[in-house]
Amino acid sequence: MRILILAAGLLIPPLLLADASVWRVSEDGFDPKQTPRAVSVAGEEACLAYSDRDGRLMVRRPESPALALTAPKRAAAGIALESFGKRLYAAWLDAGPGDPPAIVLRWLNQDGQWSDARRLDTATQPLPRIRLSGDPDGQLAVVWLGDAPDAPDGNNPAGSEPVARTTPNYHLYGRLSADGGQTWGDVRRLTAGFENGFWPALTMAGGRVHFFADARRDGETHLVHAQSDGAGGWTPAESIKTVGSVLLIAATETGGEPLALWFGTQGDGFSLESAVRKGAQWKTYRFPGSEDYDIGSMDLVAHGDQVYLVFSARPALVTALPRKNHVYFTRSLDGGLSWEPIRHLRHDPFDLTQDHLPQIAVGPDGVLIVVWNDYRNIRGDLYYNVSVDGGASWLAQDRPLDMPGVNEETLFPFVNNLVLAHGVWHVLAARYPDDGLTAADLYLYPVPTTPTVLAADPLNDEDSLAKRAQLEARVTAFWDALRKADYATAYALYDPYFRRRMRQDDYIAQSGRVRHHSFAIQEMQVTGNVAQVKVRFVYEIPKLTLPRGGTYDRPPTATEITETWIFIDGQWHKEYHNEMGDFAFTRY
């Protein structure tokens, strides 16, 4: 038998964890189909929004009970929650029995009470893709996706009897307010002049709201831009450049100018690009090597002329193994005109487990903080890292926000839920109570930016020899249990995700058709908390009567397999893998 050890697990001193307490936001669960949101009101107080299990839009602040913003028997979708200075707004797609879907807005008044609901639109046949942007002075923009038929002038929706259609007519619409939502301009189709529009992004820059989106015209996809005109309306959408397609898009302000960044396809591959306005011109940039990344989530933030991007991506080549998502970072020091080479952010020597869904924030002092989901300990953990020099360097070791490997936690895609409240960063995430992963609650985790204790080096695990010996003992116990037909013992050695989904009695009832005679461990290769074990064994299938007639049997036969074992809960467990469906219940 040959044993190859690459490294062992990560030991985390308790002092690494956040000192502040974790706040359980949703006492009775939430609806994960609606992405929860977290914002900070003037950097002083966190406010959370989520959909409960009845579909109601709930908002909650510390020291206050959850409050339903939706009317009884009405559900919310496409939740948007944003704050601009001390102004706090919530928007959603409202639906109820017998009524058409509507874009609805409420805001928090100075007396701490929420305003009455303001219905902004029904005529565009709105869909649950809503964006907000604004400023502390009361400028506010609401943009959404709609599917209304064209009006006779080809611009705004008709608002008359629906037209029979066989294809959708997706466009992006917007309304503007200059007084915090008290009064509004007309609904405008922002992608007028194009055949459709789909993915929006908003930002404030130079005292105006800036809108970016993908839109098609004459068989080509364009990255387009429009902005508020200062008189309650919008400028016509202009094409910045033609692109292949847009899959993800984000926008921010840098040096008083708007910047958009998007990921999509170009030709036969992927492409990551940016565009920033300098004076009257748009300067575009295509990231070298971006064709190698299949990006699934990204986040963008700016601090003066410095712009920071984090994203998670798997290799673009479908044949690349292991094809896992990892977190990457890059920055621009000249306001988006050029970017530094893309580099890994996670400090872990192995790529067998994934890390993804990064969120980035920059504090008033310029300190950068990135939080992401990390599966280095098999269960999904929350990890973070900090840079005090604008992303030039990072802490030598990533830090966990909770005791690693204990709870399954997850962040949410396409949103930034990092908020600063009373000088402390927090992040909103879901935590599952068990490995069944069927229902979770929302928690707000504090994120310390000045941890004082360094993490242990994962390459210097003092228990590595014991960990290796334990693996050999557990593999031996599993195969010896099969040889003895002791299926209860074999069941207990499977991973906890599998055991939450199949009862022991059911496993035992379906076992025993194959008899195991002998086995030998040929090789064990350990990489962090994942091991590949090659086993040679002899099995036999006694004569079976088939349901449709006939019999089947196999005499004692020698064969060899490679199976995966995972280190979780301080023990090695055999990872269940369904050979016919080619799936496992683990998520790493």
Automatic annotation (TrEMBL):
State the coiled-coil residue ranges: none
- TM stretches of this protein: none
**What protein is this chain from?**
BNR repeat protein
Q: Which organism is it from?
A: Thiobaca trueperi
| Taxonomic path | Bacteria, Pseudomonadati, Pseudomonadota, Gammaproteobacteria, Chromatiales
